[in-house]
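Example S7 (structure tokens).
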């Protein structure tokens, strides 16, 4: 894994997707002192549904435009801005305002899944997509477990501390996303095409040699002395 661009993409995915899972895990510590269980369930439902819809829309966008890096940066910038204001709006304990936060949190977080996955498949050349996706998801799940424990501890002290922690992590993800170079992606695509052409030429040459040997054997057998 010496591919710097892939490592940056991996860090972005781990932080953002881990952030998404962590939000779901800390709903009670985050909103327990402000809302009832039923109200927290409504917030969680809004969070999940908008995430599913935005993930589908992102898939359609990427399929038509192939602008993976643009999508990644847009997602990370949006989620960073949202969490930057969260320490000021969530402690107010207003249900309608928190529902709006849940709406945009799902809307901005989940699209990182198709964006980073498809970008990584382009970056890693001949590595099987299943291996790459497994590496990314296992990293994100492990990070989410650790982050959930950390944020829960911080929120037990003060909810704002946990939100500030998540905001700082989104800042790191944003820096990594901005450090990914668009040119590198184009070069990787070009190199992959060249490798594919070379492999095709190699296979074609081998097929020509096999046919030539077959023709030679047939000719020798026809004109061999009886």
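Recovered sequence:
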């Amino acid at each position: 894994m010496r591919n710097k661009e892939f490592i940056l993409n991996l860090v972005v995915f781990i932080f953002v997707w881990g952030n998404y899972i962590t939000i779901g895990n800390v709903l009670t510590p985050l909103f327990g002192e402000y809302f009832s269980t039923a109200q927290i369930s409504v917030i969680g439902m809004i969070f999940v549904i908008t995430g599913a819809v935005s993930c589908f829309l992102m898939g359609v966008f990427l399929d038509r435009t192939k602008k993976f890096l643009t999508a990644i940066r847009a997602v990370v910038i949006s989620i960073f801005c949202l969490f930057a204001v969260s320490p000021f709006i969530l402690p107010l304990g207003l249900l309608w305002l928190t529902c709006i936060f849940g709406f945009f949190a799902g809307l901005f977080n989940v699209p990182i899944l198709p964006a980073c996955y498809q970008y990584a498949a382009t970056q890693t050349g001949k590595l099987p997509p299943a291996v790459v996706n497994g590496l990314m998801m296992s990293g994100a799940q492990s990070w989410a477990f650790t982050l959930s424990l950390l944020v829960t501890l911080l929120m037990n002290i003060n909810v704002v501390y946990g939100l500030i922690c998540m905001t700082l992590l989104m800042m790191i993800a944003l820096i990594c996303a901005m450090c990914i170079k668009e040119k590198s992606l184009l070069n990787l695509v070009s190199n992959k095409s060249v490798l594919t052409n070379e492999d095709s030429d190699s296979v074609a040459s081998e097929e020509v040699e096999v046919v030539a040997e077959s023709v030679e054997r047939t000719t020798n057998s026809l004109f061999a002395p009886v």
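Notes on this example. Residues 184-204, 217-226 have pLDDT under 50 and may be disordered.
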